[in-house]
Specification:
The protein is α/β, with parallel strands linked by helices. It has helices at 16-27, 42-49, 62-69, 91-107, 128-141, 186-198, 200-203, 217-228, 237-240, 246-256, 266-272, 279-284, 288-295; strands at residues 7-11, 31-36, 53-56, 74-77, 112-116, 147-152, 154-155, 170-173, 181-184, 207-210, 213-215, 233-236, 306-307, 313-314. It folds into two domains: 3-152, NAD(P)-binding Rossmann-like Domain (Rossmann fold), CATH 3.40.50; 154-183 and 213-261 and 277-316, Alpha-Beta Complex (UDP-galactose 4-epimerase, domain 1). 39% of the residues lie in helices and 17% in strands. β4 (74-77), α4 (91-107) and β5 (112-116) form a beta-alpha-beta unit.
Length: 316
């Protein structure tokens, strides 16, 4: 039986992770069924145009999930969380949703469940929207279903957003200027998940911390300086905020003790997944459009750089 004869249900397909998983699975020949709240929405229609089957469903509606999981070979599970801007999902909602997906997938006879967790899972962090992932992992492992847990590092995409400070020639994030932190391109999460579904004998039962490369704060500034053609400086987030934020302090402490900085074995991951992107390559490829969008924002004073035939940036 080929991949085209099998269907993987993807949750969160209108978002970053789920969208990358749906795209990678389609590229590998899988049938993909996306659970969406509104099939008539713009993002859902874009999925349909790309060959993804969209079905109406809601994480809070078990009946809709049972219908979506019917006859599916696999399920990719990711949930919204209270740490996301613009969501009304609570921490208890996230745990309930993640547990329900695993239970319903088991009852529907799904052959392989892949759950996307967090790099900090495996310990109690004191940050509620991170500790939910640990609780969901426990629920997944408690079900009688073949499963794989991935723990992605911090997304590279978070480093190139309008509020990062590029308009002021300065960026801030969680690590110290000389401190290394691991990151991953969202595109690569999808490709890893597709590889996991493609080789269940190799990945069922595994919990995998995944990343594409490391960056210090100073290295981040250097890469962005080269990409924009303008000097970009760096400082830690807490050094730029007028008041101390409790959650921010906890996140920085988690970077300092290594749990949020990431501990993936990058050499082993690159041997297993040769496509993994480091930040500089991501800026030249999938991240180029994001960076240029920020650079075009009013008030940045930075002109996007043209790209030569090689895809590398060159001065305009």
């Amino acid at each position: 039986m080929t991949n085209t004869d099998k269907t993987v249900v993807v949750l969160g397909a209108t978002g970053q992770q789920g969208g990358s998983v749906a795209e990678a699975l389609r590229a590998d020949g899988w049938g993909v069924r996306a659970v969406v709240r509104d099939p008539s929405g713009h993002r859902a229609r874009s999925l349909s145009a790309a060959g993804v089957q969209t079905v109406r469903g809601d994480l809070g509606d078990p009946e809709s999930l049972r219908a979506a999981f019917s006859d599916a070979h696999g399920v990719f599970s990711v949930q919204p969380n209270s740490g996301q801007a613009g969501t009304d999902v609570t921490d208890e909602d996230e745990v309930r949703f993640g547990a329900a997906v695993a239970e319903i997938a088991e009852r529907c006879g799904v052959a392989h469940l892949v759950y996307s967790s967090a790099v900090t899972a495996g310990s109690s962090t004191g940050v509620a929207h991170l500790d939910t992932k640990n609780r969901v992992e426990t629920r997944v492992r408690g079900r009688d279903i073949p499963s794989t847990v991935i723990r992605p590092a911090t997304f590279m995409e978070l480093l190139v957003t309008p509020d990062m400070g590029l308009d002021r020639g300065h960026v801030s994030f969680l690590m110290r200027p000389d401190q290394a932190m691991q990151f991953i391109a969202v595109r690569d999460i999808g490709r890893i998940v597709a590889a996991v579904f493609g080789s269940p004998d190799r990945y069922v039962g595994r919990t995998m911390e995944i990343a594409g490369g490391t960056l210090t704060g100073n290295a981040l500034a250097e890469h962005l300086t080269r990409a924009t053609g303008r000097a970009i400086s760096y400082s830690r987030l807490s050094d730029t905020l007028p008041a101390r934020d409790e959650v921010l302090c906890k996140l920085e402490a988690l970077v300092d003790d290594g749990r949020l900085a990431g501990n993936a074995n990058l050499d082993a991951l690159r041997a297993e997944f040769p496509f993994l992107l480091r930040f500089d390559r991501w800026l030249e490829g999938p991240g180029a459009d994001l960076l240029n969008k920020v650079l075009r924002s009013p008030g940045t004073g930075i002109a996007p750089r043209r790209r030569g035939a090689s895809g590398r940036a060159r001065p305009s």
